[in-house]
Design a protein that fits this description.
Keywords: Amino-acid transport, Membrane, Transmembrane, Transmembrane helix, Transport. It comes from Populus tomentosa. This is Cationic amino acid transporter C-terminal domain-containing protein. The chain has 24 helices and 2 strands. By secondary structure, the protein is mainly α. Strands 1-2 form a two-stranded antiparallel ribbon.
Amino acid sequence: MDVQDSPRKSYWRCSKQDFFPEPSFKDLSSYRTALFQICPRLKDRLLSRSTETHELVTLRRESENPMQKCLTWWDLMWMSFGSVVGSGIFVITGQEARYNAGPAIVLSYALSGFSALLSVFCYTEFAVEIPAAGGSFSYLRVELGDFIAYLAAGNILLEAVIGAAGLGRSWSSYFASMINSKNPDFLRIKIDSFADGFNLLDPLAVVVLLVANSIAMSGTKRTSFLNWIASIATAFIIAFIIVVGFIHFKSSNLVPYFPEGAEGVFVSAAVVYWAYTGFDMVATMAEETKNPSKDIPIGLVGSMSIITVVYCLMALALTGMVKYTEIDPNAAYSVAFAQIGMNWASYLVSICALKGMTTSLMVGSLGQGRYTTQIARSHMIPPWFARVHPKTGTPINATLLTTILSAIVAFFSSLDVLSSVFSICTLLIFMLLAVALLVRRYYVKDVTSKNDSVTFFVSLFTIVGSSIGVTALWNSGVRGWIGYVVASVIWCSGTLGISLLHKHRVPKVWGVPLVPWLPSLSIAMNVFLLGSLDYKAFLRFIICSAVMILYYLMVGVHATYDVAHQNPKETEAEEGR
């Protein structure tokens, strides 16, 4: 029975059966029995893999109502633009041009853009083949299994909640500074009895989050239209910045081009990479796309290619307009306009930054809700959060969950506290998706021969190991060419080993070109960027992952085990339909 043929029930019903319908949670005795079977159940979940049919057909029944297929490549392109182009380009560019890359910040953006585009290729192939709402969660669940998918999705959802809270606080600070530049905290409420970092309550950030998320809950097409209007306005402002920059361009400002050498370019590339993140949230909209095989490649690959060119032009305009040693690291573009006598243009920059944060919140809310929906469909969290509202066609329960969590964090936590909780999970998922793509193309359980399986996994470990080796050499300060050449040869040998194997799967419509070389390069670049993060990010990842593993052992593994071992004939019949 299709989702739309399910008997109509109240969307807001709320009972134990709605949250924990699995047999393991029927009563205390059943749960105790399930806990005693945790080892065989965990083994079953670690070795099992989902299927495309299960993700695309069976799991959608949990939502009771279908999401509306209302998006085209035009919507996806502007959603990606609205999600990615935020305030980061205006802040990060000045800091990195001043202290690290100098005029070569353009090359840093080009390198980071190329790395992001490699990840976009992987996302696009999966989104075309498996157009489910879960994005990377569904892709990893099919290729690498439940546990890795759960751990990755849990961390990226946590990062998204914290990121949304940070955007809310940033919006509040930016807006306050436009009114009173001397005190960006004057709209906040100070509570002296609270600990530092949590004593400036921010009701405006909560309001901004509630408004942005309410728009996302009201309808996907409506959110896309509002994002499109706002992003068009931003595009005109960015075009104005670039044109004015080139009118006042002085080639003498580009000398010296590499003030800190190649090291400065690579260091900055690792930092400005974060200005490209956000496109992964757009990939979760595949289920609501009218023609995924056409719209997703054009929307994602096209938008990221344009964004890379725009970022490079904006960086070139800034460094050509002002000598890199005179760039203000805190307000680069505003001060640059002031230096050429256009003080009023600083308001355009502020408006553009505020708009960028607003659209990032709206598109991010869409993506977070759909991640949560697919996780709930799999019963890793209560399936109550998987429901899609019959009128709006959006997952209101899931979006409310992420909205409330973000609002609570934003109300109490300062930007300093939020920035210290930055996650490694985005880069880790990008790397895992590249690995999953190689697994998808070259390895099929019980089909790939033993010799080919051994060759594949040895080659894969060689690629990852050599990538870690290059990263370790760079971070240890070694700059001699011998170590890098040796590591590169090892990386090439691993990639060549995979390329000589038979491909068991080829994409039906759209696929990543130059496989396995581009996915292998994506693994290397994401490992290198992971190495640029400090120990706090890894410590946070370990602590949060430990908490998530505890929840998985106590709840998730039993719920998913029960769902996977329901009546096999009923499951086959559902997937057949």
